[in-house]
Amino acid sequence: MQRGYVPFLYSVAVLGLAAAVPEECTIIEALQNKLTYQQRLQYMKHYFPINYTVNVQFEEVLRPSNITRLREQDVSELSLRCLWLSVNSQVLPKIRAVLLEKHPSWEYIQDLCVLFEQLDEEYEDCNQGKMDTTVWDVVEQVLTGDAGSSRKPVRPKALLDNCVKVMRMLYNESCASRSLPGQPERRQLPAHGGAIGGGN
Ligand SMILES: *[C@@H]1O[C@H](CO)[C@@H](O)[C@H](O)[C@H]1NC(C)=O
Ligand SMILES: *[C@@H]1O[C@H](CO)[C@@H](O)[C@H](O)[C@H]1NC(C)=O
Ligand SMILES: *[C@@H]1O[C@H](CO)[C@@H](O)[C@H](O)[C@H]1NC(C)=O
Q1: Which one of 3, 61, 70, 179 has the lowest number of neighbouring Cβ atoms within 10 Å?
Q2: How far, in Å, is the centroid of ligand 1 from the Cα of 53?
Q3: Burial, 52: exposed, middle or buried (Cβ in 10 Å; 0-12, 13-18, 19+)?
Q4: Which residue ranges does the record annotate as region Disordered (predicted)?
């Protein structure tokens, strides 16, 4: 891993991109490492009862198709990231809330929640003034958890699948050198094998 990084860091420095969004991409990379297919499958499917679902708001089901549609409407990338961030900052605690702390998936979800909290601190611009109105309205709805909003039962793995797919769409270019998208899944496994096996 370290060896691969040296030429990468060098080329970034040469291009003058080093200061662009370093902290953000570090967190995205950590999320990418935690959201591998194997981990999503194990923690969000195998450790849950068959066909288990979590109730979320309709607006909390954020798929790649939503992003494609919003991009066609010329919504800013910042707005899209803010939307993805707010949706998942709501969804992850909802999954955590159905688990006892001793559940083998609790720590996994907790780690993801912490990463999203860290990412949230990088996004001071996610406010009404800086975001596109259409997206802001959705974010507001998500954040207020409007009691009148329709709910939908969704499988926890599907929620995380959406999370990671949209993340790749939003960050594959700006954090491209951080091994997005997708291809490192198998390389990451050994590093996380210990954490998986070490569950309580
Ligand atoms: C789970 O859902 C599938 C359809 O999605 C259904 O065929 C299956 O019988 C369900 N299993 C249980 C145990 O409810
Ligand atoms: C995503 O699109 C679906 C329709 O395909 C819609 O119901 C949902 O509200 C959209 N979500 C967001 C966050 O825009
Ligand atoms: C990023 O993903 C989009 C599709 O969402 C694709 O069109 C684009 O080529 C990708 N960019 C890179 C650098 O992989």
Answers
A1: 3
A2: 12
A3: middle
A4: 177-200
